[in-house]
Design goal:
The complex is a heterodimer of chains A (about 725) and B (about 325). Chain A contains 26 helices and 20 strands. Chain A has about 725 residues and is α+β, with helices and mostly antiparallel strands. The longest helix of chain A is centred in the C-terminal third of the chain and has 28 residues. With about 325 residues, chain B is mainly alpha-helical. Chain B has 15 helices and 2 strands. Chain B has a two-stranded antiparallel ribbon with strand order 1-2. In chain B, helix 4 runs parallel beside helix 7 and helix 11 packs across helix 14. The longest helix of chain B has about 30 residues. Chain B is globular and about 60 Å long. The chains are: A alpha+beta (about 725), B mainly alpha (about 325). The interface between A and B is large, with 59 and 55 residues.
Chain lengths: ~725, ~325
């Protein structure tokens, strides 16, 4: 009888795989007081197929487990350089201070250090090959059979964490299947001694060509030290893509290409050791991140970024996440929605990149025939890579601390709103979720949603689920307008077209989701929402008429802000008040409050964007200037400075930088900030006119709106710690 | 259409424009008027109006017309959005809204038409509104699904039909069902008409896909193989790839020259066109039998039947034509 065979060991949690995900998870669980055993088929240190690149988010995760020394010893990386066809380059700097640099550390060193941390925190290590076995029926334990050098052992565990990589045996043993139609990805690397000193940057070469054909992927040169480089290639295969070249031949071809095309820059290249290659853990499936009492992490959960092929960041952060979930399962007895947690924290995972990679291929094929077309491709690619930042939750927005401090009940509702919004806007469409989520975090955060909940609360109503749904509806309507501002006209590349597709379809999707949610709750609110959506579209069309109009009156812009941001928050406030059963005069006064509040917020955001110190990765004012979309501070500055007229009609990029300085010099930013404060005062006046028991939180919102915020880049700067 | 003004007459594009109202912006007004002019057969609104004859006769004519206009506006919004998403310059032989007024104006026009569609429907009762909001959401999600599958040679018939059902059939089903529902028809009649509408919608989509593959009439139709060049692999193409393994490779290559015509010839050679046409016929038959189950008067059924026949009459001719060519070879 298999059930009666003797057990050699009994452990609370077994973590299979001591890579970044496994060790992080094991260490965190041990620290939380669990009995943890880590099993790996290798003894450490050992070599691993990897790009060895650590993003800033990964570096932060390492610092969280006190590996500061390891980080300091690693090669600092100042930015990423994209090289298209060996002559067009684009550099994206990570920040001015070394504290914001990324790192390059070989997995040989990194994985051993992480395992040492786990052991120091109390986890035990066992060298062996583990398989999941069904030994009798039990819904309280999992059984593992481990082949160790000393012979086989059987282990019983209350939880198993499968962190054994893209080819996970634990995952296969659990019967988790691969979703059809997902592209598979491969990568290989080789260490290379480079004669000339390497630049401290991640260098990415596009497109990846093999035997005259383009593959959907890239080649990389990442410096481990000044003269030692990790050189590799990674690409998608399957999913309707052209037949891929053999992995190691592609790597050889890339090395040869570097020798021929970059000989003078790198000098002699001398390969060291053998090449290592492996499949990547892409093809995330929310439904397949747990099986029975087993949770998956890292590549075994397929959390590698489908676009960049970067896996360590999600492995480290996913390891932490899974530890928390397992801890909750063990202590509170509730089942953890592992896949949903991954999808919420790493929105880019839950996407089908098939269409994106296919677009890449077409773009590359085009750029071969016409060299110029690769330029918009590059900038669009930048924009998409810029979306790589993971979501940091509603807690990262400016609205959050105000709500949390003044109305804890509402902050709880705001969290529910955020979870509902994330779930509602989740799609498998490439990057749509990321686009929508970023829109939800833009500027001060979900102002419309917060206004609705706060107004209801101020009138004595504890926010219910129906209020939360309605808050989502209003917020979604207001953000669909700003999404359309990203439409490029004309789109001059396949990727540019994809960007437009993304903007148009996500905006429509946000609107339709909003109305559907409202229709399920309250049809009368839904009809008000359609009217507001219509007003916003009309006001945005007005903006279209005014593109490049240098003498547009400031009042016209204010009118437009009134009809967009103002209308959305006015509706929020009115809905919040009417749901709390307020009499008509109070509803009207609160709607007036909302309108002024929304405009004040919008002006503040425009001031921040127009500041010369606005983060370069944010919704840059330079972009607005180039597109001829002149915000309030720009219009005020135009009114004051004839020189600015001249600079803006010049249209060179140097002129635009000068223009930004000129805008600041005219004092237009202060003048606009003053306007914002004026609207804030109007909001307070309106508030005085209505009978509200506790208007503290509503007043705090006004203060937030009027505050000129320091440049924070619209939530796009990725290095902010959670 | 020559029918006299009355409950059987769908709103004309002029009526729809009046019901939609004018946007408070000149560009948007011009662009939406331009989009409305392009309106072709008005199949969906006609279907809704004709289906209202299944009721007990107490249909409020103005409500039915509002609903019909809303359905047509939603369809138009989808088309304009499609043109932006696929960067199309020409539709039915004339420049698209994007080509005429700019892409951003087109995007805003789509949003405006979409919100007007839902706005108009608010006057048609809560139940209809709710159902319409669901359909609008389904159509939006389907557009994403379609883009997801662009250039995907592994697209399966199942995924393709899923997109067709969500994108086209859902709105046809709604139109037929809501028409009867607004006129106070029984739940069973509404359900049968919904079914009839869905099957009809599938047939219309298949006819459209065949035009996109084989080319439409010379003046306004698409050029042969235009769908293939745009990476839209419709049901006949998917059928063909099942039996011609080399076709996928051809599709991945550059189709800007003669490649598209060669691909179309290869699709034809597999018999996939006939198979797709058979599926279309099957759907027409399905629509017919659902219609027969819907009850109602003889006139009411004939009204809907006419819409179906008229919409697909061109296809019968093409079918005979195709049969003739096949026999000739």
């Amino acid at each position: 009888m298999p059930g009666s065979s003797p057990l050699d060991d009994e452990v609370e949690v077994v973590v299979v795989g001591a890579g970044p995900a496994g060790s992080t998870c094991a260490g965190a669980l041990a620290e939380m007081g669990h009995d943890v055993l880590v099993i790996d088929r290798d003894v450490f240190p050992r070599h691993k197929a990897c790009g060895d690149a650590l993003t800033r988010s990964a570096v932060e995760a390492l610092r969280r487990v006190d590996l500061d020394d390891l980080v300091e010893e690693g090669q600092p990386i100042e930015g990423a350089r994209f090289v298209v066809d060996h002559h067009r380059r684009h550099f994206r700097r990570y920040g001015e201070s070394p504290a914001r640099y990324a790192r390059c550390i070989s997995r040989y060193t990194l994985d051993e250090a992480l395992l040492d941390v786990a052991i120091a925190r109390g986890a035990r290590f066992l060298h062996g090959r583990a398989e999941r076995r069904v030994l009798g029926a039990s819904d309280a334990f999992e059984f593992l059979e481990v082949t160790t050098p000393e012979g086989p052992r059987r282990i019983r565990a209350a939880r198993v964490i499968g962190a054994d990589g893209a080819t996970s045996r634990i995952r296969r043993g659990s019967g988790a299947t691969r979703r059809p139609n997902t592209p598979k990805a491969l990568a290989a690397r080789r260490y290379v001694h480079v004669a000339h000193e390497l630049d401290p940057v991640f260098e990415v070469f596009l497109p990846l060509r093999f035997a005259g054909r383009a593959a959907a992927g890239f080649g990389w040169v990442f410096p481990i030290t000044g003269h030692l480089a990790n050189v590799g290639v990674g690409f998608h295969r399957g999913g309707g893509l052209p037949d891929p070249p053999p992995l190691y031949s592609a790597l050889d071809a890339f090395l040869e290409e570097l020798r021929v095309r970059c000989g003078s820059r790198f000098g002699a290249l001398e390969v060291i050791g053998k090449p290592l290659g492996s499949p990547l853990g892409v093809g995330f499936d929310e439904e397949a991140c747990a099986a029975g009492l087993t949770l998956f992490a890292g590549d075994a959960a397929r959390t590698t970024d489908p676009l960049s092929g970067e896996g360590i960041t999600h492995a480290l952060r996913g390891g932490e996440l899974v530890a928390t979930l397992a801890h909750e399962e063990l202590c509170l007895g509730r089942r953890a929605p592992t896949g949903r947690a991954f999808a919420r924290h790493f929105p880019r995972l839950n996407q089908d990149v098939g269409v994106l990679t296919r677009t890449w291929i077409r773009e590359i094929a085009d750029s071969r025939t016409s060299g110029e077309r690769a330029v918009p491709f590059r900038s669009s690619l930048q924009r998409m890579v810029g979306l790589a930042d993971d979501d940091r939750g509603v807690e990262s927005t400016d609205v959050w601390p105000v709500v949390a401090e003044h109305a804890p009940v509402v902050s709880e509702a705001l969290l529910r709103f955020d979870a509902a919004a994330s779930d509602t806007v989740r799609t498998r469409f490439p990057l749509a979720t990321a686009v929508l989520q970023r829109a939800l975090r833009r500027d001060a955060g979900p102002v419309a949603a917060a206004t609705l909940l706060l107004c209801a609360h101020a009138l004595g109503r504890t926010p219910r689920d129906s209020d939360v749904d309605l808050a989502f509806s209003v917020e979604a309507i207001s953000l669909s307008g700003s999404l359309l501002a990203n439409v490029a006209d004309p789109p001059d590349s396949h990727v540019g077209r994809l960007g437009n597709t993304l903007a148009v379809l996500t905006a429509a999707f946000a609107t339709s989701r909003s109305l559907r949610a409202a229709a399920r709750r309250q049809v009368s609110a839904a009809s008000a929402l359609t009217t507001t959506a219509q007003c916003i579209a009309e006001a945005n069309a007005m903006e279209l008429d005014d593109l490049f109009v240098l003498d547009r009156p400031v009042g016209r812009r204010l009118m437009q802000l009134d009809a967009t941001a103002g209308a959305a928050t006015a509706l929020s406030a009115r809905l919040g008040a009417s749901r709390a059963g307020a009499p008509a005069p109070s509803c009207d006064a609160l709607a007036e409050y909302g309108r002024s509040l929304g405009i004040a917020f919008a002006i503040s955001a425009e001031v921040t964007d127009a500041s010369p110190d606005a983060a370069p990765t944010g919704r840059a004012a330079q972009d607005d200037l180039r597109r001829g979309a002149y915000s309030l501070p720009i219009l005020i500055a135009l009114d004051r400075s004839p020189r600015l007229h001249h600079l803006l009609t010049g249209a060179g990029s140097d002129d635009l930088a000068d223009a930004r300085a000129e805008i600041a010099a005219t004092g237009a930013l202060d003048a606009a900030a003053l306007l914002s404060r004026e609207y804030a005062a109007r909001a307070l006046e309106a508030l005085d006119r209505c009978d509200v028991a506790d208007d503290g939180p509503l007043r705090a919102m006004v203060q937030l709106a009027a505050r000129h915020r320091e440049a924070r880049g619209g939530g796009a700067s990725p290095a902010v710690t959670r | 259409m020559s029918a006299p003004a009355g409950s059987n007459c769908p709103p004309s594009s002029r009526d729809i424009a009046l019901l939609a109202g004018a946007p408070a912006n000149a560009t948007l007004e011009a662009a939406s008027a331009y989009a409305l002019e392009a309106e072709g057969g008005a199949l969906r609104s006609t279907l809704l109006v004709r289906a209202s004859a299944f009721g007990t006769g107490k249909a409020d004519d103005s409500v039915v017309r509002r609903a019909a206009a809303a359905v047509e506006l939603l369809h138009l919004a989808t088309l304009v959005r499609d043109d932006v998403a696929h960067d199309a310059r020409v539709r039915r032989g004339r420049p698209t809204v994007g080509a005429q007024f700019g892409i951003r104006a087109a995007a805003l026009t789509a949003t405006w038409l979409f919100s007007r569609a839902l706005g108009l429907m608010t006057g048609c009762g809560d139940r209809t509104w709710r159902a319409f909001a669901e359909v609008a959401d389904t159509v939006c999600a389907a557009q994403m699904l379609e883009v997801e599958d662009l250039f995907d040679c592994t697209r399966t018939p199942g995924r393709c039909r899923l997109a067709m059902r969500a994108r086209t059939a859902s709105l046809f089903g709604f139109a037929a069902g809501a028409g009867a529902d607004l006129a106070g028809a029984s739940a069973q009649t509404v359900a049968s008409l919904d079914r009839c509408g869905r099957a009809f919608g599938m047939a219309v989509q298949l006819a459209d896909d065949l035009r996109g593959l084989l080319g439409g009439d010379a003046a306004t139709g698409p050029a042969p193989g235009s769908d293939l060049r745009n990476g839209v692999y419709t049901l006949p193409v998917i059928f063909a790839m099942e039996s011609d393994a080399g076709l996928a490779r051809l599709l991945r290559s550059d189709l800007s020259g003669d490649g598209a015509e060669e691909a179309v010839a290869r699709v034809r050679a597999t018999g996939a066109v006939a198979r797709a046409r058979a599926e279309m016929m099957w759907n027409v038959a399905e629509a017919g039998s659902a219609l027969a189950r819907a009850g109602g008067t003889e006139d009411a059924r004939r009204g809907v039947r006419e819409v179906i026949d008229e919409a697909l009459s061109g296809q019968w001719e093409e079918d005979r034509h195709a049969g003739f060519i096949a026999a000739g070879r």
